[in-house]
Amino acid sequence: MANRIPAASLDPSRDRAAKDAAYAQVSWPVNLTPSSISYRSHGHLLIIGSERDARLAAQRLQDAGTLGSIALLITAATPVTESEGIAQAYRATEALPCYQARHLRLSGYLGAFQAEIAVEDAPALNLARACIRRDHFDLVLDLNTPAHLDLQLPPPGYHAVGIDTVAYDEALATLADSVGEFEKPKYFQINHDICAHAGRGQSGCIRCLDVCPADAIKSVKRRIESWIEIDPYLCHGAGSCTSACPTGAIQYLLPQPQRQLDFVRRLLAAYRQAGGVAPVLRFCDQAWLEQEPTPAAPHVLDIPLEELGAAGLEHWLAGIADGAAEVRIQRHAGLPESLSLLIDDQLDQARTLLSALGHDPLRIITLDESTTVRDAPARFDCLIAREEPDLTAHKRDRLNAVIDYLGSQGQPSARREPVPSGAPFGAIKVDEAACTLCMACVAVCPTSALSGGDNSPRLGFREADCVQCGLCDNACPENAITLLPGFLSDLEARNTARVCKEEDAFACISCGKPFATSSTIASIKAKLVDHPYFAGDAIRRLEMCEDCRVKDVWRDMARNPEAQLKI
Length: 567
What we know:
Blueprint: H1 12-25, E1 36-41, E2 44-50, H2 51-64, E3 69-76, H3 87-93, E4 98-100, E5 104-109, E6 112-119, E7 122-126, H4 127-132, E8 139-142, E9 158-160, H5 166-176, E10 180-185, E11 188-190, E12 198-199, E13 202-203, H6 207-211, E14 217-221, E15 226-230, H7 240-244, E16 250-252, H8 257-273, E17 280-285, H9 286-290, E18 300-305, H10 313-321, E19 326-330, H11 337-356, E20 364-367, H12 371-374, H13 395-409, E21 416-417, E22 426-430, H14 440-444, E23 450-452, E24 458-461, H15 471-475, E25 481-485, E26 487-488, H16 491-495, E27 498-502, E28 505-507, E29 514-517, H17 518-528, H18 546-559
Parallel strand pairs: 2-3, 2-8, 3-4, 8-9, 17-18, 17-19, 19-20
Antiparallel strand pairs: 1-10, 5-6, 6-7, 11-16, 12-13, 14-15, 21-26, 22-25, 23-24, 24-27, 28-29
Helix pairs in contact: 1-8, 2-3, 10-11, 10-13
């Protein structure tokens, strides 16, 4: 085991100089020409709420004079009373198109909101078409309780606020300015070739669907195939899907994970080269960081993320392998609940791996907004930083390289450790008696975890590549595969492909060509033994290759042409 670098006593002036030198030498990767999407708003607004609240809001927005039109959807009628001081608002807004309904179907985003009201025994009413003779609204102000869209990150152009709150005034000001063309970055890209969501009609991984706080991700299903789609107009760039994706099929673009990992590695190296010791990495939201009242201590190196979810298990463990004494994840107020739960889950996984590899799991912690823990000295020595890694590899390969390095620097338990539910680590158990080596599992595996034999029927498995998506289990026609969640810290066994089942090829009884496995032929014969097409001697055709089987059928037809009419 390599020796650790001991943490020297803190010297603020020395570490401050080293930190300044590191940031002067290494710049955060910025995409100067990111791919972007556009929204177009003409200012056609739908206000949802009680009549009193809706008309008061409409009056204020009318006075602003910037919106294209205002329509009202009344969820509860309110009597006009002078004592409430709203009679003027009623008079000022009485000409606005107004509908009353309790049940509304609302979807869309800035410039393209669809609002439909259910009508008994008739097609749903398109509210925008009925009110303003357009196919959609551009903006929505939802004053209803509860809000119609129950999302942690609602779509752009949708504002759900209470009328007696500070957010109400802010929403009205934002709505008044929401006319024109707007752009935002496209935060992601998808590589469907390595996605573990589905394959050949089978369902697998749904981790990204479970963590999106904007409900921007959906599974698109066709007759056989299905795939993941992310609506870029709904996406807020929270990054949770990219951290949860075990294969790297969904990749964050601001910046790309490879550039982010390279930044962290070079920042730590520059800090050490300038004389700094015991560096602590703090992953935090860039917008929150810019408003933080006091800067972090000199030994704390901040990683300013576009969104906190843009870094996860892979980045935190890589930071330890690249020479950070500790990693701290800075939580902040307003963090979406699903993103907070994702961070907790990724933290549990990271700590499980650290412990299994012989390191203290508290090398990675989360922070609240207290500066006491933020600036605390590292409690652990730094590992010797690994040599320059291959950052061009896929996400799973990069993570495996980090795991192997941490294992070489620790004392792995050399056993299978339990992991949090849904973690992408584990093995499979194959029932050799049931398996026919049909290779359906190999065909759907999105990684190289499962493989077939080159020259003979064989099923191989490499645990390091298995993400526990379940596609192989679902695709197996014999129900011969069972998932075994857990992290195997015997790294040699984890990285070595093992044979799950192997047998000789079955040779054609006519020409002798190997064309299937013995177990496959036996299984097919058992299933088709009562089929009239294979009655009598015809059952022998199942033991023939595809060419000889056709020849045998034609020979039989030539001898007895009427036989086929009896089937």
